[in-house]
Design brief:
Helix content is about 50%, strand content about 10%. The chain contains 21 helices and 14 strands. α12 packs across α14.
Length: about 550
């Protein structure tokens, strides 16, 4: 197994490249049996549940425009009690989270696992937890009584943190199966109904009180699950905070600490600890220790990078957003850490799985941006060669747009790319892609300062579906974003060794369904565009007189 993230003691990561519509690969199954002591029945239970999820979601999305198509994600199984906060978006929504109890052969069932995965798709897509029990009602329309009974038995026997919500859903199955749908099961014309937005579902008036009751039951279950997670960690531990303060004062790590927009500590005045004590006065002890470990990881990357530099770095640019796991402080050449990081709770409970690896990757990436701003990552290609590569990509993009079926072209006429008269759409899209050159150059350098686990976390975090990031008129902009991010999987960056990077990309992003199966472009056109993008981004070299690289990431692969 190539994954460096699979050795977290508290969770089991099932990498998406080892999952198919039929379940897990034989290699992954052998690893789980040998390293995690998974019994054969547990693996078979997962495989059957995953296969049911895939086939049913595939069939539903063909007839229901509101249903979310199946796509490969990593699966994270929380194997230690209270290890992972419920409902978190692991790896930037690129992972499903299952509880260990979901895979207990004597209590669970493939029907339960299949629905849990479909339910998690809806939560990841909407960002809303409680309504998914309702908006997935179409799942039950074609289920037999035996299938529903199997789900209900497993839901009632479940010990997962929010089990009471799924038990309420099991009780609701009789009336859920009586709901209607604008396409799958339309009501008679003129019949009184309530509609459920963005689901296609129609509720007969005789059932109109049932949906709010079910959502309320799941909301209660969700709140209880989060409270149950937080409860064991609650309680201020003075020694943890004092240990952190002592390290900041005596060790003087080259970092800055923020609480929102307010700086509460910096390495220039290490003895001033009042802001840290105030900010973390009510934080859990486990969180304080986690923050200390995060800051130590940042300090490690700062020392590693600064030891490699042979020259003066420019000042960091001013940044409005103080986040992204860590960021370069605009007031000093140090990495900064925001206690109020968007989308995270750094005050309560342990760190999320893989978050520290992603933090390390971001630390290396931030320093690499400064090296790029200093001009230490240069192209060895001539202007003529670079212009030729731009022209080739632009011409191929124009050809794809010209060959698109009329509905696709007309839907994107207002995207600001195809309607301008200044240049062809391909030229404008190529310019949009080139706006990411500083980021690409930074990654070319940062990879040398990342551990294998950090590189892998960075890749799994960034290769994801962009379906929710662009509206229906932005398909061409989304295409060039995908072309750029596909380069994370290419040898030039070397972030993760994969047997088939193309298959990983297509499956994990849904690109195959959204672009190839839909007829927007052919597989051959995608390959040609990817090759042209790789050629456009080739030829960047790191100045050896300015930076002494610590190691070659390729050596990590060779050493395994």
């Amino acid at each position: 197994m190539h994954s460096a993230l699979m050795h977290d003691a508290g969770v089991a990561l099932l990498p998406l490249e080892h999952l198919s519509p039929a379940g897990m690969s034989p290699e992954l199954a052998r690893w789980l049996r040998g390293e995690r002591a998974w019994e054969a029945r547990k693996i078979a239970l997962f495989d059957r549940g995953f296969a049911l999820y895939w086939s049913r979601s595939r069939d539903l999305c063909q007839s229901d425009p509101h249903w979310i198509p199946p796509r490969s994600r990593n699966v994270v199984v929380a194997e230690e009690p209270n290890r992972v906060r419920p409902y978190v978006a692991l790896l930037n929504t690129s992972a499903w989270l299952l509880d260990a109890s979901d895979l207990t052969p004597d209590a669970s069932h493939p029907e339960f696992i299949a629905y849990l995965l479909a339910h998690a798709d809806r939560v990841a897509e909407s960002g809303e937890v409680t309504h998914a029990v309702l908006t997935t009602a179409a799942w039950w329309f074609e289920r037999t009584d035996v299938e529903c009974e199997a789900f209900a038995a497993a839901a009632r026997a479940s010990t997962r943190p929010d089990a009471s919500g799924f038990a309420a859903m099991a009780d609701a199955l009789p009336w859920l199966r009586e709901l209607h749908h604008e396409r799958l099961r339309p009501m008679e014309d003129g019949a009184a109904r309530r509609t459920i937005p963005q689901s296609g579902l129609e509720v007969p008036l005789r059932l109109e009180n049932r949906p709010p009751q079910l959502v309320g039951a799941f909301e209660t279950a969700a709140h209880r699950a989060v409270e149950a997670f937080l409860a064991p960690w609650r309680g201020r531990n003075t020694s943890a905070l004092e240990n952190l303060c002592s390290w900041l004062r005596d060790g003087i790590p080259k970092v800055a600490l923020y609480e929102g927009d307010r700086q509460v500590w910096n390495c220039e005045t290490p003895e001033d600890l009042a802001g840290v004590r105030s900010a973390l006065a009510s934080a859990d002890a486990v969180s304080v220790r986690s923050i200390a470990s995060d800051l130590a990881r940042m300090e490690h990357h700062t020392r590693l990078f600064c030891a490699a530099v042979r020259g003066d770095l420019p000042d960091p640019p001013h940044r409005g957003e103080q986040g992204g796991y860590c960021f370069l402080d605009a007031h000093a050449n140090v990495l900064a850490y925001n206690l109020r990081e968007s989308g995270m709770d750094r005050y309560h409970g342990p760190a999320l799985p893989f978050a520290r690896e992603m933090l390390g990757a971001r630390a290396a990436h931030e320093w690499a941006h400064l090296a790029d701003a200093a001009g230490w990552i240069r192209s060895e290609r001539s202007d003529r060669e670079f212009e030729r590569s731009q022209r080739v990509l632009a011409e191929q993009l124009d050809a794809v747009i010209d060959a698109a079926v009329p509905p696709v072209r007309s839907a994107n006429d207002g995207d600001g790319v195809t309607t301008t008269g200044e240049a062809s759409a391909g030229i404008l899209l190529t310019k949009i892609l080139l706006q990411r050159l500083p980021d690409y150059r930074a990654n070319r350098l940062a990879r040398y300062f990342m551990s294998p686990a950090e590189r892998e976390a960075y890749l799994r975090h960034n290769i994801r579906s962009l379906r929710g990031a662009y509206d229906k008129r932005g398909v061409w902009r989304m295409l060039v974003r995908y072309l750029y991010e596909f380069q994370y999987l290419q040898p030039a960056l070397g972030l993760l060794e994969l047997d088939d990077p193309r298959a990983y990309f297509l499956a994990s992003t849904g690109f195959d369904r959204e672009f190839i199966e839909s007829g927007i472009l052919t597989g051959e056109a995608f390959d040609a565009l990817s090759e042209a993008t790789a050629d456009l981004l080739t030829g960047f070299q790191i100045d050896p007189l300015r930076i002494q690289l610590p190691h070659d990431p390729a050596s990590d692969v060779a050493a395994r």
